[in-house]
Amino acid sequence: MNASLDSEEILVGYDGSTDASVALDWALDEAGRSGRPVRLAYVFEWLTVAGWIGPGVAPGVWPDETARRQVEDLVRKAAADAAAERPGLTVRGEVFDGPPALVLQERSAEAQMLVLGSRGHGGFAGLLAGSTAVSVAAHARCPVIVVRDGQAATSGPVVVGVDGSPSSVQALGFAFERAAQRDVPLRALRVWEPPGERWVPPGFDPEEASATERAAAEADLASWRKSFPDVPVEVVANPGNPAALLVEESRGAQLVVVGSRGRGGLRGMLLGSVSQQLIHHSQCPVAVVRER
């Protein structure tokens, strides 16, 4: 890892919500393994359609400096508490002004990774992943990890979706590094689409198809295996729906890693259907990796 990457921070979108606190805990665990500094970023948006969503009382007059000071105190205390609980880690907080998704996207250019709760104070009941998390995952300049309350498993493998796309190759590197840091196996899943029920090509052999797809996955993994020789790897090639199978894999994993768009992505669609489905339905934290 080069010196410039060593200086990059783990950025945490923080707003005092339960999910943001869970995201912060995940980021602190990651920092404990990597030694990277952690920065809490609270994005202060003066005007919102639904009214005030920050801490304390609603602003009386816009702009309200009292409300901003409350936010600054919240972030300062959260950073101080985190640093006290994790001696040896560098933790700081900062308040930014502007639309949350846009500001976090801009700050992500200087981060090693960005960690978000699935919903903040602006989430609606029943909405599993907030608009900020989905938007940032689509546009961020670094890997985005989305964590939901109750998801922070510390056992099980790291699971990565493999399909040969450029973002999938980037996701493999991220997944191998996380598995090595955690000293856990990596489970690589390649999903292929079976023939339709109405017509099966003459001579089609599902076992042969799986073997072909497995060989393609092994080719994608070859260089990463050399870089991380101590990481046990299991390669699985199954027919079916990629999102559904990865969600199922997430039940026994501590992290699922996917590229932002796979081979099926439409030109101009920044976040593919598989990564969106995982953000909404995964049973463990999800890392979405884009090409940098």
From TrEMBL:
Domain (UspA): residue spans on this chain: 9-148, 157-290
InterPro entries to which the protein is assigned, alphabetical: Rossmann-like_a/b/a_fold, Universal_stress_UspA, UspA
Recorded superkingdom: Bacteria
Family to which the UniProt record says this protein belongs: Belongs to the universal stress protein A family.
PANTHER family recorded: STRESS RESPONSE PROTEIN NHAX, UNIVERSAL STRESS PROTEIN UP12
Descriptive protein name: Nucleotide-binding universal stress protein, UspA family
Species this protein is from: Micromonospora chersina
